[in-house]
Amino acid sequence: MKLTFSPGSPYARKVRIAAIELGLIDRIALVPTTVQPGQSNEGYARDVSPLRKLPALILDNGNTIVDSYVIAEYLDELAGGGKLIPASGDAKWRVKTEHAITQGMLEAMLLCRYERMLRPEEKRWDVWLDDQWDRAWQGFKLFEQRPDTLARPLDIAQIGLVCALGYADFRFPDCGWRKTYPKLSAFHEAMMKRPSIKDTVPPPA
Ligand SMILES: N[C@@H](CCC(=O)N[C@@H](CS)C(=O)NCC(=O)O)C(=O)O
Q1: How far is the CA of 41 from the centre of ligand 1 (A)?
Q2: Atom of ligand 1 nearest to the CA of 41
Q3: Model pTM score
Q4: Quick one: fold of 89-194?
């Protein structure tokens, strides 16, 4: 299998962490790939995904799986199922919903990043930027108030949260989440003891 990725992508990081934790990383060739909003990335759109987003998992039979969650779900099934995503019941829906919140937090932070990186300064809309940032911030607040979630055995929602916190460190290093959210800070520190998480931290920008 091949995984399109970039070292700074929090979504690709999620898949890499899942693959390591599931014992599947040796079966995946990592393919460094650059796609940037505002550029056509024609080859990627044609051969990999019309959405032109990382990551994508290209299977040995030529089929392609897109979206970090869907890839993680595929890998979980390949590893026997029910490892990072509970197989059924309340636990499944709780983990899937919490993961979806971390996904939305990442989307909001990426929109802030793209707005700052790509849009000419005179055209930036601060109200919109602040609104997107607040979605991520409120997400952190929600998890700060969920000690049970932070203390569970590893699952895809926790991995999503670590990737969101890591992305905040990577692109918004002065945002101060550790000070505002001490329980998340302790959670992140504990998670960093796992090689899968420590070894996939984005390199300095
Ligand atoms: N929902 C997608 C989001 C993936 C995504 O936005 N990836 C970013 C890189 S971190 C990307 O490819 N951006 C390029 C673009 O939006 O043009 C997932 O979970 O995989």
Answers
A1: 13
A2: 17
A3: 0.97
A4: Glutathione S-transferase Yfyf (Class Pi); Chain A, domain 2 (1.20.1050)
